[in-house]
TrEMBL record:
Protein name: Alpha-L-rhamnosidase C-terminal domain-containing protein
Species of provenance: Olivibacter oleidegradans
Residue ranges constituting the Alpha-L-rhamnosidase C-terminal domain according to the UniProt record: 532-587
Top-level taxon of origin: Bacteria
Signal sequence region: 1-22
Keywords of this entry: Signal
Length: 592
């Protein structure tokens, strides 16, 4: 993964000057009167890493396919040498399935040679986050296990391709591409079938490295998962859920701060969200997501100290506090909305969701108090504080729901050690979820259960890696891995397809997103608790370095701040104590 990212970065740096300083022809300046917008994202090309599978009939339908693995130049040439040949006869269709090695966002560029037709030839292109999805059928009229959909991004395309030319298609999340030649008695030649990776050209400022390669890979996979979702705005998923979801953003924002630093995609996304959902609407039509908005605003300000951005959102913040406060009565009963939502796996436990939802209100209003103090709005601060006091009169039982117990521990409604011993840590990774797993880990940190949290990260998020993941998924259950094929393998009879045979709610089967930013929590968690960087004063002016190595022998890394990078290394001595080296830029006070 790291070498893959470094290769991408080198490619981007090589062409950065020509992209960044490209000038438009003068004719555009007057004709379009400022209506031209430059693409802020970058494209690079990736050749397939391997041929997963082909259907060649007696062996003659697909030949020279290894030519597709070579580096290309996007230029067709006359003749049919050094090209993959695909032939369909009267009864059989030539097919090939390509693996690009990592989950990416973008499309595919086909560079084509000659064909047996004067007219364009008809092909079917299927993008897939797994081999199984690439081989699946598309059914858009209803969701179901065993089928994929074209929701949010077209991933199953029938189209004509030219001969001796080039064509580009696709804008989705994928790792695999299947090409089928549909017309009978036709031969085509493909010189190149390169993936187009479209992503934000930014350096990985934060880093994490330890003597445990599994943890290192998990940290980097979480970072890359969020990176792919940093498109024009901050999305939840690159195949499905290519939308701004405020609740889902919180783990992503936590990861962005620790990996990419103060990136414009966060304030830009928050600005658009407020435009899309003006008060008294709830963010995304979900009251819980408006609560997350307050938490995100607090955490983002604490990281970068940008008071101007906070003031820009002052009226929305104060109006939201008024709205929430108006829906909590004197006894602490609330009627924010009829629908309560934490995450999908928690939904069957209605009583637990209710307890967790109330804890989320408390957490959000606690952060609202701090925001009002920063903005020098004492009346609003007292209102939010009083709302918290009313909510605390009526604390519900967590009903053994890990999501609820975690939020209650974070909000101070239950002792963290009690929450973890009774619920969160029971059964280890059992009943963890990709979204709320971050808050379960945070509850364990509050309880001092760092080793238990590290073990769960290895088991749960590492379990996705064991099944071929290169980004983290919308949902995951360790039980799915029993007798299941990896996402990079052709499913076989008698075994489950880890992608197509599981999933529920809005993500059954192949509709399940395998690159979801809300699953990146361990990246932020490891930087905060293993590397040990805690922000004590807004803008990282004062930070505390308090590592928790557990069974690790050493850890080192960097933490981006508005003042520059903090460089850290911790090594465990023979007696179990930790030797730490911290180099911080001028303007930052470090407390050890």
């Amino acid at each position: 993964m790291k070498s893959f990212l470094l290769t991408i970065q080198l490619c981007l740096w090589t062409c950065a000057s020509s992209i960044l300083y490209a000038q438009l022809p003068p004719v555009f300046e007057s004709i379009y009167d400022g209506k031209i917008q430059k693409d802020e994202l970058t494209r690079i090309f990736i050749s397939p890493q391997r041929i997963v599978w082909k259907y060649a009939g007696d062996g003659s339908l697909v030949t020279n396919e290894n030519e597709l693995l070579k580096i290309g130049n996007s230029q067709t040439e006359l003749g049919k040498k050094n090209m993959c040949e695909m032939v369909s006869n009267q009864n059989e269709t030539a097919s090939i399935l390509l693996d690009y090695g990592k989950e990416i966002h973008g499309g595919i560029q086909l560079v084509l040679g000659g064909s047996t037709r004067r007219e364009p030839s008809l092909v079917r292109i299927r993008f897939g986050e797994s081999v199984g999805e690439c081989n699946s059928q598309t059914r858009n009229y209803e969701w179901g296990v065993g089928y994929s959909t074209d929701d949010h991004a077209k991933r199953d395309i029938i189209m004509e391709i030219p001969r001796d030319g080039l064509i580009e298609l696709g804008n989705t999340g994928f790792r695999f591409v299947r090409i089928d030649l549909l017309q009978k008695n036709t031969t085509i030649h493909i010189k190149e079938a390169r993936a187009i990776l479209r992503y934000r050209d930014i350096p990985y400022l934060g880093s994490f490295k330890s003597n445990d390669e599994r943890l290192n890979k998990i940290w980097l996979t979480g970072a890359y998962t969020v990176h792919l979702n940093m498109q024009e705005y901050l999305w939840d998923g690159i195949k499905r859920d290519r939308l701004i979801w405020l609740g889902d953003m919180h783990p992503e924002v936590s990861t962005i701060a620790r990996v990419f630093g103060d990136n414009d995609v966060v304030p830009k996304t928050l600005d658009l969200a407020c435009q899309q959902y003006p008060l008294p609407q709830w963010m995304n039509g979900m009251s819980a997501y408006s609560l997350w908005y307050l938490i995100i605003q607090h955490d983002w300000y604490k990281y970068n100290g940008n008071i101007d951005f906070l003031r820009k959102h002052q009226n929305y913040i104060l109006g939201l506090i008024d709205l929430i406060d108006s829906k909590v009565d004197a006894e602490g009963r609330e009627n924010l909305a009829a629908e309560r939502f934490l995450d999908w796996p928690s939904t069957p436990n209605k009583e637990g969701v209710e307890a967790g939802y109330r804890a989320l209100i408390v957490w959000a209003m606690q952060d609202a108090v701090k925001l009002c103090e920063i903005l020098k709005q004492p009346i609003a601060a007292k209102k939010a504080e009083a709302c918290v006091a009313r909510m605390n009169k009526y604390v519900k039982d967590h009903h053994q729901l890990k999501q609820a117990a975690s939020l209650m521990a974070i909000a101070g409604l239950i002792d963290p050690e009690k929450a973890c011993n009774e619920v969160v840590s029971v059964g280890g990774a059992k009943d963890f979820s990709t979204f709320y797993g971050y808050y379960m880990l945070q509850a364990q940190a509050k309880a001092g259960q760092y080793q238990q949290a590290m073990d769960i990260i290895r088991q749960y998020w590492g379990g996705m890696l064991d099944m071929g993941a290169t980004t983290f998924w919308e949902d995951f259950n360790l039980d799915w891995t029993k007798n299941a094929t990896r996402i990079d393998e052709v499913p076989v009879p008698g075994k489950k397809d880890i992608h197509g045979d599981f999933g529920a709610y809005c993500y059954p089967g192949f509709r399940h997103s395998l690159c979801h930013g809300w699953a990146s929590g361990p990246t932020a968690w490891m930087s905060e608790h293993i590397l040990g960087v805690k922000i004590l004063e807004a803008g990282c002016k004062v930070i505390k370095v308090e590592p928790h190595l557990g069974d690790l022998q050493w850890v080192e890394g960097t933490f981006p701040t508005p003042y520059g990078l903090i460089e850290i290394r911790h090594s465990k001595r023979a007696n179990g104590t930790i030797e730490s080296t911290v180099k911080a830029p001028k303007g930052i006070k470090v407390i050890k």
